[in-house]
Amino acid sequence: MYLKKPTYCYWIVDNSFCDSRMAEMVTAARNRGVNTDIIAFSPREIEGADTYDLYDIDHADPLFPLVYLQAGLLNLSYDVVIYIDRTTEIRGEIVNTEALLNFDPVHVPLSSNHRSPNDVVLERTARRFGFNRPWRSNLDGGFVLRRRAVERVVELCGAFRKFSGEQANFKCSELVGSVCQILSGDTRAHEVQLTRQCWDIQLASEIDSNAALITKI
Amino acid sequence: MSNFLPGSKLTLHLFGNPSPLGGASTKLIDFIQSFYKRYRIINYLPRTPPDDMAAFLSSHDVEIKQYSDFPAQNEGVCLAVCVDKFFETGIPQKARDHRIPLVWSNEMMWLFPGEEDAVKCGLISKVLYLSPIQKRVFQNVYKSVSSMIVDNYVNPAYFKFVDRGSREPFTIGRLSRPDPLKYPINFPTLYESLISKSERLKIQSWSSDLAAEYSWHYFSPDRWVLQEVGAEPANLFLQSIDVFSYPLGHRFIESWGRSTVEAMLTGCVPVVPSGHHLENLLVHGESGFVCQNDDDFIKWTRELCADVSLFMKMSRSAAQYSRDVICNSEANCRLWIQALEEW
What we know:
The complex is a heterodimer of chains A (217) and B (343). With 217 residues, chain A is α/β, with parallel strands linked by helices. Chain A has one domain (8-215): Spore Coat Polysaccharide Biosynthesis Protein SpsA, Chain A. Chain A has 6 helices and 11 strands. Chain A has helices at 21-31, 64-73, 97-101, 117-128, 150-164, 172-183; strands at residues 8-13, 38-41, 50-52, 80-84, 88-90, 106-107, 110-111, 137-138, 142-146, 199-201, 213-215. The longest helix of chain A is centred in the C-terminal third of the chain and has 15 residues, at 150-164. Chain B is an alpha/beta fold. Helices cover 34% and strands 17% of the residues of chain B. Chain B has 12 helices and 13 strands. In chain B, the strands form 2 sheets. Chain B has a 7-stranded parallel β-sheet with strand order 3-2-1-4-5-6-7. In chain B, strand 9, helix 7 (208-213) and strand 10 form a beta-alpha-beta unit. Classes of the chains: A alpha/beta (217), B alpha/beta (343). At the A-B interface, helix 5 of A face helix 6 and helix 10 of B.
């Protein structure tokens, strides 16, 4: 299957009607020489990206990015998608997405040194799926997803949220990070310390704001 | 109760499908080989057995009958082992009507349809457990019924030890029914994490259901050998792998673990999860490894891949332990005789 180098693209969903941050991020990436396709869903044309209209869906649902991925990937031929959110900046090309994925269906940068209140609920839910390792917190911002796994990941994210209880208010990346852990062969491979070549992550303890995932060479 | 004359053979009405596939079915083959001289065995089957099984039964003087023929003899003991829909056949009621005691061995970790009602109606005379872990699951249901634990027995003659030497490629594998419940949610990625370079992953049995379950993963033919049920005889398959790595689905509990013992007899080093009867089949660190979590599976399997002398030592130790401690024919026969003849 992967005799050829897997193709990948960046994927953004700009559901803000009055914020130009996504457009500026794409422009900045192109100015830095990033040539990889960027698929954007936005209410307005984003220069430098293949722009598609927003779907008529509930964007208050935290899982809305997965709706785009599931539907969009049916019509596109990329093997791997790098989803990035509003707190992320593309600083350069990712050379080897397979190294990031480590044969797993999805990669989310994880950390064992960081724990949010939601992690208690997420870890408890993961045990219901047979997860039996030390829990790692996901670091907000983006994830790398294998095309062939998108349906399974979306299905498990939905199941994860359901089993966690409706009162919990999870971000998409938290649910994808949880699914990453239960589907991974070796969760340690997704530790941010091991993937610094792609994710240059500043933890909240290192900076003042809640930003920022930054991808770079 | 002793309902047969000294010198005559006790008639054993046997319900269950002897076959080389699946733990309970394989168990019946070993049982028949051990007891066909002691008992007159009548095997009641829902359909005509395949030719090789018919030949096996015939060569061991086992009479083959249909369910509707029961009881072919108005005496003896009825033994039913893991028979699907058994409690819907009317056989247990017939056994009671003919005063033939029914000995039941479930073998699984769940109740069969009608099993609980059969207990309430007093249709089961004695229940056999495979292991303490199985007994714990069922003991409330069976609290009013006579019971005993009869371990499985695996015939070492069929699973000969093979000295692995330095053959290539080093192979990690498992042998089980192709039941998705027996496979963990992250099976393919966990299995790939067990190896580091040129090792091979070999699975029997694989099925379309499992392929659908894990369609999100790409099984590279460079790494994986996925075989359907019966692609290789169990002994040859197990002799072809080096480490028997057996992660299980979280909703499944292994009541005994026959394939693990079969693997050990051939010289595979078992790497098994805790929380099942499996951990009673080996000595951790000597004849195999018991894993508390997935990280343990990775750690121990990689260690065996990397350290040939450790692997060779544990391979011999696993075979010896399984042969000397687990597969004790005389002890197993004594248990069966107690189960079927002492009331």
